[in-house]
Write the structure tokens for this entry.
Amino acid sequence: MRQIAIIGSGPAGYYTAEAAQKQWGDEVRVDIFDSLPVPYGLIRFGVAPDHQSIKGVSRRYEATSLSNNVRFVGNVMVGRDVTIAELQELYDAVVLATGAPHDKKTGIPGEDLRGVHGSAAFVGWYNGHPQFAELDPDVSGQNAVVIGNGNVALDVVRILAKTRAEFHGSDIVNHALDQLDHSQVRKITVLGRRGPHQIAMTPKELGELGHLERANPHVDPADLPPVEEDAALDPGQRKSVALLRGFTEIPAADREGKSIDVEFDFYAAPKALLGADGKVSGVEIERTRLEGGKAVGTGEIYTVPAELVVVCIGYQTSPIPDVPFDEKNGRFANEEGRIRPGLYCVGWARRGPTGTIGTNRPDGFAVIEKIAEDVGDGAAKPGGEGFDRIASERTLAVVTFDDWHKIDEAEVARARDGAPREKFVAVQDMIDAARS
Ligand code: NAP
């Protein structure tokens, strides 16, 4: 019997549990820990609330959780309630599937001004993450700037641009919906430090911007490389660039009556966030040009006004004491998922924040191969029974998968019209629902 602890119940964690089941069937026991009382990590707190079909993947994780040899161990913070060293005593393998929950910093002056938010915080706010429920972003100004040219930047633009009606069927939390109802944002500038050929936006997500009720996307035709150069792009990127080209050709009649402008500003590197009285008021930008694929400053400086700035330039993993960390790449130092025998990482904690949800599946299977090499038939460790003893000694309020079902039912029951659920945003409310 092998005993495996997985830390993190997002896609990487669940695909690893599924891989363990496929590899060993009944000869493995898996405990999936999460610091929150609710499972699914990025699916619940990262995937945009208006992308419900993507969230449907959680049904697959539920199937994994309902099997006899996998347990969800919620509301247990590894590092606070139990240490990695203790888990390594109890389990043959400990797998860090902790994702990349922290924002990368731009390192430019003004990042701490009020009104400047990292995407982890802003996305967490509209997705009801307990840590960010109180963020209270100020949407009373007319100008927002979104820094970054990835899919998270697109999510943020959509959330700022959509009408209440367009959120029908989404699980955006009520506190965000209510605040966005009063939004005065009329212009959203999207800053890319490189050009249209270098965007990290995928076609489906970029295409959505062309179909919003009240928002007009704008691209300066002068920023687009000659069309024949698109042939060298991979097919997905070519589609995305074609969409940007399409945005330059939207007929004036189709733009009429739309109150929000989404301006793509390419070759635009933020140099400083400007402020007055501790509150952001604008972004100082340096025009760039590409040299060998890299953005280099041209010395041309200009400013755009901004009362709200959302920095969407990628994420990093949280370091854990005594676990080697790769600072440069913002992930655990590892070789193909092995940190050291007995301790592993998967998903964004292994690779950094890249790829789609599905990319985590092969990751999970690959790490199980490493574990199989290292642990053989298992060392007769106590696994979950040992953890349960610690939990009882420390009176930890562990939330099980059955408890999660109660939280789930309560969230579904209190959903507004057309919404799949209304999430609890306070940990205590989740626990109360679990115990009811
Ligand atoms: P990302 O795809 O890595 O994009 C980050 C963007 O930030 C890039 O355009 C990058 O430009 C820019 N950037 C980085 N450092 C910068 C700096 N110092 N100043 C200005 N710009 C900077 O990251 P993400 O958008 O956070 O997405 C993370 C992952 O989640 C991606 O794999 C993404 O596809 C995925 N995701 C998918 C979906 C979906 O499929 N619907 C939704 C959300 C996220 P450079 O290229 O110049 O570095």
In short: The chain has 16 helices and 19 strands. The longest strand covers residues 279-291.
